[in-house]
Amino acid sequence: MQKTYVLDTNVLLHNPESLFAFEDNHIVIPFAVIEELDNQKRRQDEVGRHARIASRRLDALRQNGNLAEGVALPGGGILRVELNHHSTHDYPPGLSLDKYDNRILAVAYNLSKESEGPVITVTKDLNLRIKADVLGMKAQNFTNDMVNYSNLYQGVREIHATAEDIEQFYRAQSLAWEAEPPLMPHEFVILKNPANPSQSAIAKYADGYLVPLNFSDTINWGVKARNKEQKFALELLLDDSIRVVTLVGTAGTGKTLLALAVGLEKVVEQNEYSRFLITRPVTPVGEDLGYLPGSKEEKLKPWMQAVYDNLEYLFQKADEPRDVLEELVARGVLDMDTLTYLRGRSIPRQFILCDEAQNITPKMIKTLVTRVGEGSKIVFTGDPEQIDHPYLDQNSNGLTYLVERIKEQEVAGHVTLVRGERSAVAEMGAKLL
């Protein structure tokens, strides 16, 4: 039986291609959604861009017929823009149609009264799904680009090994691995002897072998790993053959500090890359970034303050840490930019850090990765348990999506950091609060 999916605006703003993701079913776009897209199209960020793309997709479908009557979609199914079914008859009192959400819900509510098949509201708005449920209607999240965060690839696993295997690993500096479970490229392994738990080894998987770490004890811009997960992170960050690195961890685990330290080491000390580019998602409250006074650096600083704090910590031995930072920026060695201004660029031979990547959509992650030019390396850091984006969660954000999609690629590596190193107070807060 064919289903009818009523799409909320936030689904199209999250992924404009969602119009074509519902197979051979009926897709209904309430007229209120068109109005909301029009309201968002002038924004100079990802939301505005997706609004414009969604509008262009709908405009292209007009060539197939009248949108109000319904047009065939390339992959099957029918899409129509719904002008009717806004009646408030039998609609619970108190739900004002002045709100776009309630108008979208009214369309789904009235269609469900007439349709023989199921009518499902698709929205990334948790409260709208709750309203639909209260009204006895079916509602769901848009799940095509979601992953199961509870089963997220960790990049590290513990494997039981015999005393002979561990001795062979230390003696030969490698151990052939063909047994189950199969390992991912650059996955890290903690070998433990269950008969003697004190006998253990840490290794990484490469080309069918478990091999020792190469960079785990290095000092980069004064920073040294404090635990095994940080050693694993350094291994990924310092290996130039690994072009895409993802680091996931709660606050205080050191993911951003390690990435900044290695970036400075690679760019300033080793000259392996021509520039250190740092970016973060910007979700302004109120006016967009461009409306703030001052230079680009002055506009960015409120959103980049956490990065500035970490950089000043790394420059703490200098007499004036801020002067060192400003000098690197003036020389063009260090650059900070928003994701909005990276679109359309090609970024060759640069060390790129995208911090707070849990606040990026999967579509934006793709946009950023495809900007990476020849000889560049890109690092994504973030905590999927601290998401500020109103329509993303642990399962639908771009960081977790990226981790799962690229875990089998030779040019990519991932590790989840679990132990807090910022302070005893920060570690307590991360665990208990």
How would you describe the overall organization of this protein?
The chain is an alpha/beta fold and 433 residues long. The protein folds into two domains: 4-140, 3-Layer(aba) Sandwich (Rossmann fold), CATH 3.40.50; 218-432, Rossmann fold (3-Layer(aba) Sandwich). It contains 13 helices and 17 strands. It has helices at residues 9-14, 31-40, 46-61, 100-114, 126-134, 163-172, 228-238, 255-269, 296-314, 321-330, 362-369, 398-406, 424-432, and strands spanning 4-7, 26-30, 71-72, 78-82, 119-122, 138-140, 156-160, 175-176, 188-193, 196-206, 209-211, 244-249, 275-280, 334-338, 350-354, 377-382, 412-417. The protein has a six-stranded mixed sheet. The chain has a six-stranded parallel sheet with strand order 14-13-15-16-12-17, with helices on both faces. Strands 7-9-10-11-8 form a five-stranded mixed sheet. Helix 2 packs across helix 3, helix 2 (31-40) packs antiparallel against helix 4 (100-114) and helix 11 (362-369) packs across helix 12. The protein is globular and about 75 Å long. The model is unreliable at 284-289 (pLDDT under 50).
Give a short overview.
The chain contains 13 helices and 17 strands. The chain has helices spanning 9-14, 31-40, 46-61, 100-114, 126-134, 163-172, 228-238, 255-269, 296-314, 321-330, 362-369, 398-406, 424-432, and strands at 4-7, 26-30, 71-72, 78-82, 119-122, 138-140, 156-160, 175-176, 188-193, 196-206, 209-211, 244-249, 275-280, 334-338, 350-354, 377-382, 412-417.
